[in-house]
Amino acid sequence: MTTQTQNTNPLPEAQRGPAERLLDLVLGGSAHLWHNRPGLDVNGTWYAAAHATPAQKASGRPVKPGLFVPAAVKLYRQLLDIYKLNAELMAHFASYALTQTDWRDLKVATCALMLVQGHAGQPVRDDHGQVAFHDDDWRAIGEAMVLHYERKSTRMLAPKAVLRVAELLEQPEIARLNREAGFGDPASRKAPLGRWKRVACKWLAAREANLPMLQGLVKAGYKETLKKLARKAGYKPAAQGFFEVLGWKQKQSAQGHRTVGLSGLTLVKRERFDGLSEAEICEWIESERLSYKEVVGRLPKDVGLTPAIMAVLLPSLSDRDLRLMTPTLEELGLLAEPSVRARWEKAVQTATDQRALNIAKNVRSEVLRQKLEEASDNAARNAVAEATAETDVRVMFLIDKSGSMEGAIENSKEALARILAGFPMEKLHIAAFDTMGTVLKPKAANRTAVQHMLAGLKASGGTTHAAALQALHRDGVRVPEGAKLVVIVVGDEAGEAGDQLARAFRDFGYSVAAMALLVSVAGARGNTVRTCAGQLKVPFSEVNVDQFADPYQVPRVLKALLDAPAAQGVTTTVQSGWVERVMRTPLLKVA
Length: 591
What we know:
Blueprint: H1 18-28, E1 34-35, E2 39-42, E3 45-48, H2 54-59, E4 61-63, E5 66-67, H3 69-85, H4 87-100, H5 104-116, E6 123-125, E7 131-134, H6 139-147, H7 159-170, H8 172-180, H9 196-209, H10 211-219, H11 223-233, H12 241-246, H13 278-288, H14 292-296, H15 307-313, H16 319-324, H17 326-331, H18 338-349, H19 356-359, H20 366-387, E8 393-400, H21 409-419, E9 428-433, E10 437-440, H22 447-454, H23 466-474, E11 484-491, H24 498-507, E12 512-519, H25 528-536, E13 540-544, H26 553-562, H27 577-584
Parallel strand pairs: 8-9, 8-11, 11-12, 12-13
Antiparallel strand pairs: 1-5, 2-3, 2-4, 6-7, 9-10
InterPro entries: VWF_A, vWFA_dom_sf
Protein name: VWA domain-containing protein
Domain VWFA: 394-517
């Protein structure tokens, strides 16, 4: 076996610029900060307590549902480091994160940083003390993130997210980081919140001025969240209708300064459905247009959630809700109803994450299980389509199956099964290699076909990456003029010298726009792919295959990896196309 077994790390920390750090943040972490179930803290990593292994239970520390502080501090520190190196990049990334992604916890963290960071439009004076100009006001981007509204969109901050921005900034370790960065009074005991209180009051005022919007949030289950927001921001409503919609009884404060909502309140209360028949409950739901979240806690125990009640609630459920509730719909027999089945199948087509793979484990029907796997494939397809919408991208996957992959090849297979079904078959070229290359072709563009294609791969032999290129070229693979070629290698990159692989790309006529490595290591690691990218002067990215166990991470990683740069670089430092896309994102502005 040809070896380059030194464990070579990426660029040294001191040489990693803001673009490299930002790409690493996106490729290397799922940014999950809040969890709704008990967990375990195992050396700073969160694991669900219910599914933890004996080893994790032995070494882990129990944590309650809510914010997982170690992950929050790590993510915020990464964002802060990027901001310190390039505040403008962070401003564009915050705008990108809100408007172009569904990464809810990442939006909260970037918003928190933008609201509190130091560029706040301060006057800059000349040598004579006169105001020469004003500094950039990046805090206004944080405000715009909170106030951004897009009807029926997930790409804005929900009420919980607005509240979580403050909860994140109040964490002692994050407050310390902000003080050390100069974002707050170092002597103050209070956590720096920047403009959060001001913008939270604006957000609440906009909902109070539009009572149907406020009522809609209450129906969606946000009543207690809105109360917490109002308390934390010190919001003073313009009229008592705000308290009435929230069913929030008021009393005079100790200082006696309250003037609104102290008398004459007609509180809107949620009544339970005790004593009502199933038909009466359904009639009430239809007349009041109640949502699923508003109903489930009010159902009598002797009635429960019946097929009829669930059918009436279906219009209030999003496509994401329908996918998550597949086991419930199956148990109630509703998926046998043509209209419900049609709506559910439409929801499968619009998947943006791969949670359906986990849901599939909880259904009895093999047909439904296959459909949920299809939802996972669709999430990958949608991500690929979005990333390649602006240009013709061809992708080569080179899969290392040499002897050094013994013990790691199975992880590679699982990651590839989650990824490959997302690509149009005519633009995807796959080859496995040891010292000889073998072209692989799935029988169909789905997870089952990819698993079947990979099933026979066994780790053995030496390592020559160029053998995969030779096999593809011999098979007639050519890249059309004008198309961009992204090469993704799966393995430990322990093989021939990187300059040899670069020469092979040139010899076979493959002009590479970007390279990536899906790191799957059983033992030592080499540097063939990274060195090759440097020789070709193209962007290089890497992500560990373990990341793909996270159902949200596959679409994110695909978008970042497939954004080839607009033009090939001519220096040794080449910015990825994804970072270019971030920088092209218009900065958010307060309306």
